[in-house]
Amino acid sequence: MKKTTRFFCEYGYVIISALIGLIAFISIYGIGTLDVTNDTWIITRYNESDIVQHYTGWINYRNSPWEFPLGNSSYMAYPDGGNIAFSDSIPLLAILFKALSPVLPEVFQYLGITILISFILQGISSSLLIHELTKNKILAAISSVFFVLSPILLERSFRHSALSAHYLILFAMYIYFKYRSNLNEKNNFNKLPFGSMAALCALSVGITPYFLPMVMIFVFVLSINYVCARFSLKDIVKATIFFLICVCTAYLTGVLIGTLGQGINTSRGGFGKYSMNLNAVINPYSLGGYTWSQFMSPRAQAEPQYDGFNYIGCGMLLFLLFSAVCAIINFIKGQAYLRFVKAVKENFVLLCACIFLTLFALSHIIYFGGLLIIEIPLPDILLNLCGIFRASSRMFWPVFYLIFTFAITCTFFVFKKYPKIVYVITTFFLALQIYDLKGVLVEKHIEMQEKLTYEFPGDPELFQLGDYELVIDDYSGSKRYVCYISGRNNIMTTSNNFNSGSYPNAIALCENELRRIETEPLNIKYVYVTNDIEKYELWQKQFADTANFYTWKRNEHETKVLRFMVPVQKEN
């Protein structure tokens, strides 16, 4: 009993923060998404069809035989195959659940579990971070609500499930500040977080490589801090080894999964388009048209910048201004001069890293609202390199959370002698933040409840294709939904929903087969699918006696209809 009491006294704030994450998830999304056997709500889309890509990548990967690299999936883009990393299906979870597949239900989706884990770990990581900087457990628990209800986390959840793992950034920040706090303690700063940072790098690649540079920036800054604090040849070597171990761990994880080492060019066009607008932190606009603010109206931005959502929230914006004003007043009064100088000195490299991340997020084509400010020509080699992380707006996320951290900790140190005042101030701005976001919180709750009542609107026979071997897709569109049908029936398809790679054999097989059936009978082991109404009507006339015909219109507003031709198989 005493051990339990002692444990709760020591880590109770972390447990409370985890519960805050749990309660927030249930309050916003309910528990319906945690039913792993219900996947129909996924195909309703979530602002866009990316969630369908993530799920169908998993179900086709689950059906594929094991290969090396472990993330290779042969059931899509047949016969070329692809890799689970390029369908953004969270490779580490996909590999884990594939290993457990024999004991899992026939229908199994882990997107609900993924987002729940993200919310819980968001609470845990943020409370650890604030406690590390303030040593105040109550403030750490209160502040975790800011992070759990982070607008950029809410915006990515279920839209891009892998990109909801913001706890990777927060854990990297926590580890960074934990070890940097020993800068002036020569006896303690002889250690570097080899294991924890390397693990975060591996997790980043295993979830989505977009998080890797966000974690590595803290590895890099900590290495520089270490060298500056010690500055001996031995310590330079040690810092270099630390950095290289993190890089090598990430690389080996990529090779093991198949993200790297298969000759696939991970760079794509779009750098400079999917960037962050200069007004992003005060622009409550996102894909889906949610009400992100009760006080501010959506502002103009360049059309491709729909992915650049980085709205900070009115509560946090005012909190930031308040803490900055208080810090300036203290500085003018001379009460915090030495602390200010120390803070600038300790955080100089981190500030430089924040500037770099912000500039990369803005890219070489900078807009303020709809106005083009400047476009800097870049050589093709640099554009190709930056194209690896073409959605550059996401690189602002570490800066985003550092802003949160600064507002909270700055207020704490200004009023450190009066902790109750700190709690009141923080709670006030937190309440303001929640009120500002109340529209989107309610809208997302209602939307998810509606999605969970969705029933498959296509012909039920489309789930009874297990006797066939291959789905031939004429590539006229809706490939992600074709992959849903192939995955649910445990059969292969020439279609694919991978972000990168080329699949010439799959395209050739499809084209050759469609050309062949113009004059020859259907292959009774193939299912044929198209969106082309004229082609479908021609099939109906040509194969009326030898095939059945089914359709799937995803919703009443959908213009594209999936049309299936299923050959009649003779009974033995």
| Largest sheet composition | 5 strands, mixed
How confident is the prediction overall: mean pLDDT? 92
Q: Specify Rg, calculated over alpha carbons.
A: 26 Å
Overall geometry: elongated
Which stretches of 5+ consecutive residues score pLDDT under 50? none
- Structural class, by secondary structure, is alpha/beta
Q: How much beta, percentage-wise?
A: 5-15%
Q: What is the spatial order of strands in the main beta sheet?
A: 6-5-7-9-8
Q: In angstroms, what separates the terminal alpha carbons? A: 69 Å
Give the ordered list of helices and strands: HHEEHHHHHHHHHHEEHHHHEHEHEHEE
Number of strands: 9
Classify the helix fraction into a percent range.
Answer: 40-55%
Helical region count? 19
Describe the structure.
Among the domains are: 168-264, no CATH class; 265-417 and 428-455, no CATH class; 460-567, no CATH class. Helix content is 53%, strand content 6%. The chain has helices at residues 2-29, 50-63, 91-99, 111-134, 137-148, 151-156, 167-180, 194-207, 211-230, 233-257, 314-332, 337-362, 380-386, 397-414, 419-436, 438-451, 479-488, 504-516, 533-542, and strands at residues 72-73, 82-83, 365-368, 371-375, 470-473, 492-493, 526-530, 547-552, 562-567. Strand 3 (365-368) and strand 4 form a beta hairpin. Helix 1 (2-29) runs parallel beside helix 5 (137-148). The longest helix is centred in the N-terminal third of the chain and has 28 residues, at 2-29.
